[in-house]
Structures are given as C-alpha cells and as structure tokens.
Design brief:
This is MDMPI C-terminal domain-containing protein. It comes from Mycolicibacterium pulveris (Mycobacterium pulveris). By secondary structure, the protein is of the alpha+beta class. It contains 5 helices and 5 strands; from the N terminus they run ααββββααβα. A 5-stranded mixed beta sheet has the order 3-2-1-4-5.
Length: 126
C-alpha cells in the first residue's frame, strides 16, 4: 500500500534523473536489474502504439523482457516467451531510448538488434 503512494514521486525522480544517467557512469556503479524500476517509469507516460511485441534488452550480461501491448508496456525478467528481437546495448543508451532523449535510428550503429526491428521500434519509438 505504501509503495503505491510512493510510485508517482519515485517515477518522477527517475524521469528527472534520466538525462543525468544518459551521460554515462563517470565512475558510478550500475546494475542491470535497476532497469526494472527505471524503464517502467520512463515508459509510463507513452501513448500505446497499438502493436504488440516482446523484446529482450541485454545490458551488462543480464537480459530483461519488455512487452508492449495496446494497453501499455510491461518490464520484467524473462518469463519464457519468445522474443521478437533482442537489443544489446549499454545502459545509458537504453535509458536514453526509453526516455525519448535518443532516437533508435541515431544509435543503430552502436547498439545490436537481433530480430524484428519493428518490434524494437514499437517499444522505443512510441
């Protein structure tokens, strides 16, 4: 119950701090599982794309599952579903894409996409 009341302030802090995180770690520690909190906050205000896709996000040796549906975006650990695509990238790039500060076409040379690019666009180009 308490967490539900804190969700909006925490998500607001995540959205506010993401531009700072995009610059890179500058010696800071980063753990891939932190994206489980950051990505839902960044995707929360995006308009539904009308497309469904399941994409794996591989960062620092860990893979997360991002599922987009007409109702919104869900981020979690892989649940056994087959991925339409897997994006392998550094955390600042994933955060930048999720925040809308970076455009997929602009970073396509420095990230790896294995699979359906349109599925990745359904998540990051909303």
């Amino acid at each position: 119950m308490v967490f539900r009341r804190l969700r909006e302030p925490i998500e607001g802090l995540i959205r506010w701090s993401t531009p700072l995180m995009i610059r890179g770690p500058e010696g800071d520690e980063f753990r891939a599982e932190w994206l489980l909190l950051a990505l839902p906050a960044l995707f929360a205000r995006r308009a539904p794309t009308g497309r469904s896709a399941t994409v794996g996000i591989a960062v620092e040796g860990a893979t997360l599952q991002v599922q987009v549906a007409p109702s919104g975006v869900d981020v979690g650990m892989p649940d056994g579903r087959e991925f339409d695509a897997v994006v392998t990238a550094e955390a600042p790039l994933v955060l930048g894409l999720a925040a809308g500060a970076l455009v997929l076409d602009d970073v396509s040379e420095i990230i790896e996409i294995d699979g359906d690019r349109e599925a990745v666009r359904a998540i990051f180009d909303a």
